């Protein structure tokens, strides 16, 4: 996949992994639509990389459609990276034996709606636009990458909602790749481990906390950098023989129960 002259959409691009992906796509020649709800950070990043910010709530189909239309104005839409997502931690049942203290069902629905349904919605809308394009020299019309998590495989205590949403992304990878093959569109999923993103930046002991987390990584014993994760995303986009696969990028970690 040659990114020069093409447009790309990255959801959740205002910070963390999404921002690193957006920067690397822009450096490779794509015009990137920074699709996020964080307007200040999103607009600043879009200005930095020569892209465009579009406010997108991935649970709103019309906003996804608007991002696709805007991308198509900038060049043929060849790339979608689904990085938008939220976390949630709560045990399935409470300690007091009462249903009212069990896992918040609305919170479970929200995590699934954003992380899983929102990603699938973006896929179906963006892929429809890609299917109208002429194939590139490599014979493909587009490429898509979902950002899942090792929680899809090694979900910890309290991660029922998050793991279910990320496991859903892993589960849809092959069947959707099979669906999209008729249109010469590839789909892969990348599952990060412990990546150094703003989620860990809190209080004065954040660095010590991150160093402690890094000790559980097989090698190297540290948190991964967003740029390292973004590098794998770009390889999945670039490599025309990479399709229908989920790749862990985690330093060999296998998460313990808690």
TrEMBL record:
Keywords, comma-separated and alphabetical: Oxidoreductase
Family matches, as Gene3D superfamilies: NAD(P)-binding Rossmann-like Domain
Transmembrane segments: none
Entry annotated with the keyword Oxidoreductase: yes
GO terms, molecular function: oxidoreductase activity
Family: Belongs to the short-chain dehydrogenases/reductases (SDR) family.
Protein name, as recorded: NAD(P)-dependent dehydrogenase (Short-subunit alcohol dehydrogenase family)
Organism: Nocardioides panaciterrulae
